[in-house]
Amino acid sequence: MASSAILHLSPSPIFTPSFRTYRPSLSLHSYFPKSLTVKASTSLDYEKTSVADVSMKPNNWQWKFKDTFINIYYEEHEKESTVPTKNILMIPTISDVSTVEEWRSVAKDIVQRVGKVNWRATIVDWPGLGYSDRPKLDYNADVMEKFLVDFMNEPNSPVSCLDNDLVVFGGGHAATLTVRAAKKGLVQPTGIAAVAPTWAGPLPIVFGRDSKMESRYGLLRGTLRAPAVGWMMYNVLVSNENAIQSQYKSHVYANPENVTADIIESRYALTKRDGARYVPAAFLTGLLDPVKSREEFVELFGGFEGRIPVLVVSTLGAPKRSKAEMEALREAKGVSKFVEIPGALLPQEEYPILVAEELCRFLHENFEPKA
């Protein structure tokens, strides 16, 4: 499916009566060169410090949305250095089990490298996901965009006073939401890397968006948000270890052997946090989709031509529909570089070394002083 969904749809007694149309889920130019396609690159000539030299500082930032204060979890990965420091914001893929953990290995790899720039990485959990608070809000793409804009711009935000040098790495929907906000001028990153970018939630990409289906999505969304029956349905569809394992092995990871018991246990624990079902209810039914079509998706990236460098990291083992959306960006205006690496929907977690290599190359080519 053309999404970063962790929920995998298959025919079941729960969905068959309501979704009878089921189809199987396959779950710059003056400044930058023309869009380039390459395969996974060889290692960059960097030295690395000991991982012990990299510190990880967990913290919380309080986001005010309307009259609600929400604790937002974030981590800072950095090392001491005498060379100039630049900053990266890493944003997890939106899914039922979205978490900062998917970016940790990539962050450590990039931060520990010794070069002409000392890179510092901040990873943040979305409101309603990961280790952030999960209040019962009416989550949609605009709410998530508002959070992203505030986190990057608010004076008290951990990344707002960083001398306008922020490069953003996002996975899945996070990448597309970042691109959307930047195209509007609401945020001003100096570069964007979109890792396995997606734009469509699981149900709309499979069943469409006509009025009848939208009505059914609304019914399902309301049911998932309800006090008692909502938890029951959430437990059946998402919050059980067998379902999470099946989804990871079928389309989240490219190699089922990379799915470990520790990963499943960690992700399962996330689904048991208070309020865990509210964002998935919105994501599953398409409310978090930044655009409504592939044409809009490609057009978003076109707004960056000649402005900032944009890297798209596609994956060789992505589900058919997700792969088609990524492939649409191969020659898209505004995409200064397009690469392919092994992986499916979470390459930054499954193949962190390969992702870190490509991201470091992107940083080296565009943001480090030339010899």
TrEMBL record:
<dbReference type="InterPro" id="IPR029058">
    <property type="entry name" value="AB_hydrolase_fold"/>
</dbReference>
<protein>
    <recommendedName>
        <fullName>AB hydrolase-1 domain-containing protein</fullName>
    </recommendedName>
</protein>
<dbReference type="GO" id="GO:0009507">
    <property type="term" value="C:chloroplast"/>
</dbReference>
